[in-house]
Amino acid sequence: MPTETYHTSRKKDADEKQRIYEQTVHYLQNDERLKNYLNAYTADSVKSFIEFYAHQKAEWFINGDTMLNLRKHHETQWEENALMILKHIQLKKLFNAECEWRAEKMTLPGIEICLDFMVWSRKVLDCPFIKPVTEEEVNLYISFLGDLDDKISFDDYNIGNDYPTLKDGFYKKGKYYSEYPPWYSYYDAHFGIERLLLLPDIRGDKEKFYNELFHKEQQPLRDEQKAARDKRPHIGSIYEKNFTEWFLKEFDSKETLKLYHNTLQWDEKHQRIEDIDMELINLGEADRDVAVEDDEDWRNGIKRGAEKYYRQRTIEVLPAAWESYCSRIDAGKPFTEEDEENTFTGLRNQVMDQILRGREMNKEPRDLNF
After folding, report:
1. Half-sphere exposure of 149 toward its Cβ, with a 13 Å CA cutoff?
2. Which 3 state secondary structure label does DSSP give 230?
3. Residue 23: in which H helix or E strand, if any?
4. For 231, which DSSP code?
5. Which of 23-27, 77-81, 267-271 has the lowest mean pLDDT?
């Protein structure tokens, strides 16, 4: 959870707890039926009871629904993981098709510009020009999970089909890059298709040429807008530790700085525990004994043990999830919600207009026949 979101959420929960606490105390102290009941006990014990009861009720209201939702998530996450795996399989095949399309080795229905592949990546289970997931591919992914490093978790293992990023990850270009996904390498090696990554990006280079012409035409307007902007820098964020340290030393008291340090230490310790909250909940709800490895950092042992359990449970439901997927394909039921389909519509139209304008500037027809 990002730091700002984490702190904002904590503040909201604290405010709600205080509201429930005060409301409960008022009720316990003023309800006539309760007053008659509590009069039979000592004043000190009643005072303590009211405070403790109000505090616990606030905790129940804030955490009760959360714990119920976490347990529901525990019961459904294996099917969610299995569906994610089917998406990973199709994303890899979509990327394979993109490599060949960009190299002008094939044409594809519904694909006119490079961005169309990004559009289909968001609804990849409904993509019409790649074949449905096969049983061989499901079994291959099960083998992949068995060979995958335990330090890579389902939470961390998110695949995005951004072509330049994937190619850079394969070639390890530049100081910063995203690694070529291990699943993609595994798939390439099994089917012997590493050659696809060596294909040139002919179509991408053409689009880039026309886009650059368009942006060159727009440069005077951008320069004018830049000149009109406020040139002063943005102030630092209270969530940046170095800035906050400096600001408190410069403009506030030593007492405030000390309290900030105390709070920061508590937040950092709490965050380290929060990082494995879901693992502990899942292991607590596990339907079997789960071995936890020894490690200098006990949290790493918890994470690896939980990850092995995640994979076991996911592998167990994957065949049934695939059969359900096949039934849905046969019935013609889409996997994508309508609002997801419209996510890239505006951006796609914008990019298309830029390419077509670039064509016009290059004295070429305003079409995509290039």
Report:
1. 6
2. coil
3. helix 3-30
4. -
5. 267-271
d(CA 208, CA 206): 5
pLDDT in tens, 302-347: 777 778 888 888 899 999 999 999 999 999 998 876 555 556 778 8
Entry pTM: 0.68
Contacts of 162 (CB under 8 A, 6+ apart): 118
- Cβ burial, residue 6 (10 Å; 0-12/13-18/19+): middle
* 84 within 8 A of 91, measured Cβ to Cβ: no
What is the C-alpha to C-alpha distance for residues 271 and 3, in angstroms, rounded to an integer? 9
Let me know: does 50 contact 44? Beta carbons within 8 Å: no
Cβ neighbours for 212, distance < 8 A, ≥ 6 positions apart: 358
> Are 102 and 199 a contacting pair, CB within 8 Å?
yes
Do 105 and 360 meet the contact criterion of CB atoms below 8 Å apart? no
Helix axes 135-147, 298-331, angle to 10 degrees: 180
Kindly indicate the confidence band of residue 298, based on its pLDDT and cuts at 50, 70 and 90: confident
The model's confidence at residue 144, banded by pLDDT at 50, 70 and 90, is very high
User: How many angstroms separate the CA atoms of 347 and 352, rounded?
Assistant: 9
Nearest to 324 by CA among 139, 145, 159, 80: 80
Give 97 or 272, the one with higher predicted confidence: 97
Per residue in 39-78, pLDDT (tens digit) is 888 988 888 888 888 888 887 777 655 555 555 555 677 8
Q: What is the DSSP string of 147-193?
A: HS-TT--TTT------HHHHHHHHHT-SSS-PPPPHHHHHHHHHHT-
